[in-house]
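## Example record

The block below lists the input lines for one assembly entry, exactly as stored, with component labels intact.
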Amino acid sequence: MWKKEDSKPEGVSGAPASPINSSTSSSTAAANMPSPSGAPQGSSRTAACISQGIKIKGEVTGSEDLFVDGVVEGKLSLTTNSCLTIGPNGHVKADVLAREVIVRGKIEGKVTGRDRVQLGSTGEITGEVQTDRLAIEDGALLRGKVEAGRQTTKSAEIKASAATATGKAVDATALNSGTAAD
Amino acid sequence: MSFLHKLGLGMGSGTTRGVSLPIHANSRARTPGAPISAVGPARSPESPGSARVSNGLKEFLWNLDGLGRGSLLDLGPASQTTLNFFIERGFRVSSEDILRGWKAFLTEEERRLREDVSACETLDMTPTGRATRFLVENLKYSRASFDAVLLWDLLDYLEPMLVKQMVASLTELLRPGGVILAMFHSKKPEGFQRYRVADSHTLQVISTPVICPPQKVYQNREIQDLFTRFRTMKSFVGRDQLRESLFIK
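Predicted C-alpha cells for the full assembly:
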C-alpha cells in the first residue's frame, strides 16, 4: 500500500500540481514544469516570465528566478538566490540587480550580478557592469564600465542590503544570509 | 648579433623591429629592460583564432606596470579574455566597440535620410559634421579618466575626419603619462580581424566578417601628425605588415 503511493509518478493527470514555492519546491517538480522558450536550461527552478509583447514600466522586485522577453523600464531587482535572464527579445531599460544575470537581449542601465553576469552572443549591455564573475560570448556588445571581483560585488551587496532593509525586513534577512554564504 | 639583426630584419626570434620616434624634441622615451627583438615568431593572422606575438602589448603593459588600480578603455569588441586579463591586474575596464558603433551610426543616418528627405538640408552631411555627430553619442567619458586605451587597428577603418576628431578626444580622455596601443596596416588589409589579449605578450587574432571596409593606409608621418600631442611614439613592425604603435601622453 505504502509502496504503491510512493511509486506514483509525479505530474499524473488528476494529481494536483505542487505549489511553486522557492523554499519548498523540489528540483524534480521544477524539472517537470514547462519552461518559457529561451529560458535558461538546466535551471533547477521554474522562472517567472515576462513574455514578448508585454511592457512593464516601474519597479519589478522579487525573490524568484525571472525570465524577461518583453520590455521593462524602471528598476528590476531580485533578492536571495534569484537568477534573471533577459531573453533574445527582451529589452530592459533599468538598473538590474540579481544573483546571476544572463543577458541574451538588451539592457540599458547598471547591471549588478552578485555572483555572475553572463553576456550571450546576442546580448547587449549599455551601462556599468558590477559582478563577481563575468562571462562574455563572442559577438556580445558591451558598452560601459566593468568592475568584476569579490570587492566590487560585496560593496554592491552592502548597498543593496541597506536599500532592502529600509523596505522589507524579511527580504533583508534573506539577502544577508546570501551574503554570509559568499 | 647577425647582420640581419643589425639591419633590424631579424629572422627567427626577431620578427619585429622596434622604432622609437620622439614626437617632440624634448620628449623622453621610456625603454623597458627587456630587449625589443627578444620574441618568438609572429604568425600570420589569416587563420581564425591564430596567435600573434606582440611587442606593442609587452611595451604597453610595461608602461602600465606599477600603476596599481588604473583604468583602461578598450575600444575593440567586448572580449572575456581581454577584460579578465586587465581586471585580474586590478584595472577598472571600460569597453566600447567603436567600429560596431560607427556602423550602427551610419545605418541609422541612412535610415533617417531615407525616411526624412528634409534631413538632408538640416543635417551637416560633410565628413566633419558626421564625425562630430558620432562623437556626441560616443566616447562620452570625463576628461583625464583613463590611464590606457586599447585602440587596436580601428583607425584604419574609420573616415579620416573621424579619426582626427577621435584621436583629439582620446587625448583629452587620457591622463598625463597615459598610453595608447594602436595598430596600423602597412598595406590595405585583405581580411578583417579583431584582437584579444591572450597573455602578456600574445594577441589572439580572430578573423571575423567585415564590419567596416578599410578607409586609409596611414604612413608614418601621418601617424605622427595625428598623435602630435603625445610626447613619445614607439612602433613595432611585424612580418605581417602590421605596425603596432605605442603613444605616451
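DSSP finds four helices and eleven strands in chain A. The first strand of chain A starts at residue 48 and ends at 50.
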